[in-house]
Design goal:
single chain; about 250 residues; 7-stranded parallel beta sheet; 3-stranded mixed beta sheet
């Protein structure tokens, strides 16, 4: 699922809400940050009122989510979270039925993938992209060997929030990854992201012919040794101005 697809018509579907912080990238989680303003405990995982959104129909019998829509799936939790095991089978059934949609799932729990797949998954559903997040070298070295062999047809590596330079060279990404997405951390407590780290990822993608998307600078951005504070409204536009995105399509 490349940047062009991401920019097409889209819908967010959060079948459950809440999560448990797992690794360094979770420290300043945007879900926790948003929930705290509303007095919500993000560590309590609950099934949402929009659980059956993909299956909902209008009075005329058409689905409320039209065919061809990109569905951002479970973006206020993790689809493979243990707490959601009892609901996931039904969620997979809706995903299976709506093969006219494109579902995008981002996870830090790629090690739970095999135990969480439906019986008919095989080597993956054509209309499902499962993205693996790696925020530092430690998580890349743990998650990517699992991800590389995982039965998923569409794979994207998400390096966000990027917390340090990550070397993807050992993983020969050109043979199995469709895209790498990179970005800094948002929020008042954001840790700095260095443009040199972004370019390290860009260069390996260029070398191995993998699409690359510099999604956002984050709130604290280093370039040429200088630290910049970037307003949240400008974090995406400033990333675009770098002019380093490219697609292999």
């Amino acid at each position: 699922m490349t940047k062009n697809a991401i920019e097409s018509k889209s819908k967010t579907w959060n079948p459950w809400h809440g999560c448990h912080k797992l690794s360094a990238g979770c420290k300043h989680c945007y879900v926790y940050r948003g929930d705290s303003k509303r007095g919500i405990d993000s560590s309590i995982v609950t099934k949402t009122k929009s659980f059956d959104l993909p299956a909902l129909k209008k009075r005329n019998g058409e689905y409320k989510i039209p065919p061809g829509t990109l569905v951002y799936t479970c973006f206020t939790s993790d689809f493979f979270l243990e707490d959601a095991d009892e609901w996931r089978t039904e969620a997979w059934e809706m995903i299976r039925t709506r093969n006219d949609l494109n579902f995008m799932i981002i996870t830090k729990r790629i090690d739970r993938l095999q135990a969480s797949l439906p019986d008919d998954w095989g080597d993956g559903y054509d209309h499902v992209t499962i993205c693996c997040t790696v925020e530092n070298q430690d998580r890349a070295d743990y998650r990517l060997p699992i991800y590389k062999t995982a039965p998923v047809k569409h794979k994207i590596i998400i390096c966000e929030p990027l917390l340090e330079r990550i070397d993807l060279t050992p993983y020969n990404i050109g043979s199995w990854i469709e895209q790498v997405v990179a970005g800094g951390e948002s929020g008042n407590e954001a840790r700095p992201c260095d443009f040199d780290w972004i370019m390290t990822l860009h260069d390996i993608c260029e070398e191995q012919n993998v699409s690359f998307w510099f999604k956002q600078t984050g709130a604290k951005f280093m370039k040429d040794g200088k630290l910049y504070s970037i307003n949240y409204r400008q974090q995406h536009s400033q990333a675009r101005k770098a002019g380093i995105n490219f697609s292999t399509e």
